[in-house]
Amino acid sequence: MRANNRGFKSKSGSVKTMRSRFNNSVGRPRSRKKHKMLAVFDKSVAKGPEALQSPQSGAVSAMKDGFLSNHFVSLNPGAVTVNLGSAGLMAYSVSKQNPLLPRLFAVVDNIFCLFQGHIDNIALLKQQYGLNKTANEGTIVIEAYRTLRDRGPYPVDQVVRDIQGKFAFILYDCSSKATFFAADADGSVPFFWGTDAEECLILSDDVDIIKKMCGKSFAPFPKGCFFTSSGGLRSYEHPLHELKPVPRVDSSGQVCGATFKVDSETKKESSMPRVGSAANWSSNY
Description:
The protein is α+β, with helices and mostly antiparallel strands. It has helices spanning 67-75, 122-128, 137-150, 156-161, 207-214, and strands spanning 8-9, 14-18, 37-41, 79-83, 88-92, 103-108, 111-119, 165-173, 178-183, 192-195, 201-204, 218-220, 225-228, 232-235, 241-249, 255-267.
């Protein structure tokens, strides 16, 4: 299901188009950036790694009084926002698309997905998940997640690794209040994450928005990695190894979040626990 400018509502989330009151401002140049993807999640839904939080970060409260959503819409007139209630929000714009890395939005059974990029083996994955020819990349990610959540036939790292192409995606499941994010192994799509003053986790392809909300508590989302609410950050390229944070230092010598590297000396379990169809994958991983 795709959102349009009229918007729609679901049981657990609502979507609406918010047109900026700054549309007619005189003398204000329009942003020429193509960065148009944003999500923020309360720490009860998705708690970011502690290493992302920097001392004296200068972060603000993104959710207070709609600060973040209003800022995003002021930069992107006509942007669509998805209100997730106390869990957070998602927002995107379809204007000024990069034809090589298009943005897509999909929702199925109260599972929302923002996807940017493209999948090279899309025909194979449609067949694998039993989807029709009209299914797009966002729908494929949702179906992959639902398969993992409900049946779990493969390790999560294998499912993400099977997605070949250039991509970054953000998924939220309203029914279980679970999140699922990932980026391709080459970091082809600009994708950043950070924490605000309330420890909310913020993700966007616009580093300026991340800096404005998170101060110095941010970093690029790690290449070849995925994040789940209950399992945290993991590498799908090297699933047998832990990830270790490496502090980032800016030009003034201050700590600015952290990058995450594969720790070749620390191994972990090779696969996720198998769960039955009656169990919830998101609470077991």
